[in-house]
Amino acid sequence: MRTQFQPALGEPADWLGDWHPLVEQLGSANGLVALSQITSVLDTRPVHDTVTLRAFLREYHRQVLVPIELPAIQRAYDHANHQELRELIAFDRELAEKEILKPFAEPSRRVGQTELLKLRPLRDQRLLRRYLDTVQRGEAQAWHTLVYGVTLSLYSMPLRQGLLGYGCQTTRGFIYAAARSLRLSETICRTMLEQHCASLPGAVDALLAQRPAEVGVATTGTPERV
């Protein structure tokens, strides 16, 4: 039987170990986008109490985290594993066309590019070097989710653990971003985090189950090896 995921029993740092700083930077609402900027695109009411905060979190998970962000991380991870630079850049540009991500675009680019630059010591990694060059020429955005997926691959971190870390830390970021103005207690925050993260393992497992046996093989043509 699968052990139930219980974030309230420990901080993300406890079960992510040394990877906590990475997830904290790339998988957090802090510094990314204000709640007020995305409630309209999610078609939810402005967050002003626990009811509206819960509604926002549900819609964020339903419309953005599960269908877009987690698959984006997984896809970037797979492209990096298979040295598929062309496919990674094409996907970077594809994300820019998604209307629901428009409010995230500028802050996501800022965070993603900042973290990508921190990887300069790994410039012997050809995919990383060429992706960075493409971003610096303004030909790709470096979405924070893609940089996160690439980084998980570079450091050989288990994908499932990375996806769960991102989902939980992002959810936590939104909750604690609202906590001060809503005067939420630590108990309420932790309870809310546990409730909204409870479905993440199932969502992540369903996503990973969709990956083909030979991940990253293009359906037409030959992937660009870097």
Class from helix and strand fractions? mainly alpha
The third-level CATH topology is Urease accessory protein UreF
Spans where pLDDT lies below 50 across 5 or more residues: 1-21, 26-32, 216-224
Provide the CATH architecture: Orthogonal Bundle
From the spread of the alpha carbons, the general shape counts as globular
How many helical stretches?
11
**Most strands sheet:** none
Strand content: under 5%
CATH class: Mainly Alpha
Succession of helices and strands: HHHHHHHHHHH
Task: State the helicity in percent bands.
Answer: 55-70%
Distance linking N and C termini: 42 Å
Number-wise, the strands total 0
What's the CATH H-level superfamily name?
Urease accessory protein UreF
Radius of gyration from the CA trace? 17 Å
The whole-number mean of residue pLDDT values reads 80
- Number of structural domains: 1
